[in-house]
Design goal:
Elements lengths: L6 H18 L12 H10 L5 H14 L3 H5 L3 H8 L5 H19 L7 H4 L7 H11 L10 H9 L8 H11 L5 H14 L22 H5 L1
Helix pairs in contact: 2-3, 2-8, 5-6, 9-11
């Protein structure tokens, strides 16, 4: 855990972190509620700067009124805005949702595409969102989903100093076995929400406190 930790030592420690978190969270998964790839894509677009809990409160009505890309592509933007208003940035999100649906209908016969190259051009879809869809809806690993929890915990655990999500993703892809690309994000997100909470981490209850360079530091600062 020193500043001169070798790449081999870092990788071994990261694999230990993953193994411990797997034991702690054997059911770690995406906490957005969805029934198919379209619903997951819409929910993920809504999750930008919004909690999964709030998104899950909004999506039942959204999917009741517009259950697929074909219906959402024809939706009135003001009506979509009203339904998703509580998720924040609702005008931009409504524009992205409708634009995404229109592109899916026009270019993919109404079906959510299954590749990074096809997902990225869709309105409201960046690499993070595409990774969420591929890893969870299609069980395909083309990358690692990097959100604010993954960025924060990677820094605290000194896995990486990267502050750019795509740079961190590339580093994790080289350190983590491909079979774990999808689950490593879920594990770090679950731990960040339950134990390693921003500004109030429960270091004394953390299964990583003996291999975490930041263990106890936050507590001593408060």
């Amino acid at each position: 855990m020193s500043r001169r930790e070798s790449r081999a030592a870092l990788q071994a420690r990261l694999l230990d972190i993953i193994a411990r978190l797997k034991r702690l969270y054997p059911d770690a998964h995406c906490e957005l509620n969805y029934g198919n790839a379209f619903e997951l894509l819409a929910a993920t677009i809504l999750s930008a700067q919004c909690t999964d809990v709030r998104v899950n409160m909004v999506t039942p009505e959204l999917f009741r009124r517009w259950p697929d890309a074909d219906t959402l592509a024809q939706a009135n933007s003001s009506e979509v805005e009203d339904v998703i208003r509580s998720t924040g940035f609702f005008r931009n999100k409504a524009k992205s949702l409708i634009g995404m649906a229109q592109a899916v209908v026009a270019n993919h016969d109404g079906r959510i595409p299954r590749t990074m190259a096809e997902l990225r051009p869709l309105p409201g879809v960046g690499r993070k969102t595409a990774n969420v869809i591929l890893g969870n809806a299609f069980d395909t690993s083309e990358g690692v989903t990097v959100d604010t929890h993954v960025l924060r915990l990677s820094a605290l655990l000194r896995i990486s100093r990267a502050t750019d999500p795509e740079k961190l993703e590339q580093e994790l892809m080289h350190l983590v076995p491909r079979d774990d690309w999808a689950v490593v994000s879920h594990l770090l997100i679950w731990h960040g929400r339950r134990i390693c909470i921003a500004n109030r981490p429960k270091c004394e209850a953390c299964v990583l406190n003996d291999i975490c360079p930041s263990a106890g530091i936050m507590g001593r600062r408060t």
